[in-house]
Amino acid sequence: MHRAAPPTSLPELEARAAAIIGLSLGQLAADLGAGVPTELRRAKGWIGQLVEAALGAEAGSKPTPDFEALGVELKTIPVAEDGRPHESTFVCTAPIEGAFEASWEESRVRRKLARVLWVPVWGRRGEDLATRVIGRPRLWVPDPQEEAALAQDWRDLSELIVGGELHRIHGRLGRVLQLRPKGANAGDFAWMMDEEGEWVRAVPYGFYLRARFTRAVIGRRRREGP
DNA sequence: GATTGATCATAC
DNA sequence: GTATGATCAATC
User: Which residues contact A4 (CB under 8 A, 6 or more apart)?
Assistant: First the structure.
C-alpha cells in the first residue's frame, strides 16, 4: 500500500484529512493501490491502517503518536448516519505491576489522548467495506472537564490494578474510561499481582473510551454530517 | 440497540 | 510477547 509522506505541520495534516472527506473506502484503497478485505472480522484494523497511509502516519508498532512531529494521535471511529459511534475506542493497554504509572500526568492514557484527530467512517455493521464513507475529521484536545473525568476514571481504575484487586475489575466501571480485556483470545494472560502480593495469571486489560464519551467529543459544535 | 467480554491481523 | 490497528458476538 502506498503511504503518504508525514505531514510537516498541523494545517497540512488537517488539509489532507479534509481532502478525503466523502471518499469511499473503496476509492481511497484504490488511490493507495490497496486491496479491500472481504470481511472486517478478519481485518479489524484495516480501516485505521488505510487512513494512516492516506494521511502519512508513521507505520509500525512504536508507542509514539501517529504523527510524532505534531504530537497527534489518529483514531478512526465507525459511526452511524446520525454520527453516533458504533464502538468504544481502544486507548492503550493497562499497566501491570512492575510497570505501573504513578500519576495521571505521566500516564499513557493522558499522553495518547493529548491531541487526537478523529476520523469518522460512516457505515453499518456488516456493510461492505468498499462502500463505507470517510466523514469530517475533528481535531480534539480534551477540555478541562473532559480531562478531569478521564483523570478520575484513570485513577480509580489504576488503583484496582496497583492494589491487586483484579477480581473487582470489569467493564461496567468508569464513566468515560473503562477497563476491558485486550488480548489475542481468552487463553491470553499476563502476570499480575493480587491483593496478597502473589503473582497470578490474569487477562491483559486495556483502557477504552466509552462510545457515549466519544460521541460527545466528536459531536461538539457539530452542524453537519460526520 | 447498547454494552461487555472476547477476538483478529500485522509489525518488530 | 508487546506494540500497533480495532471490531466481533454473546448477552444485557
Answer: A16, A53, A54, A55, A56
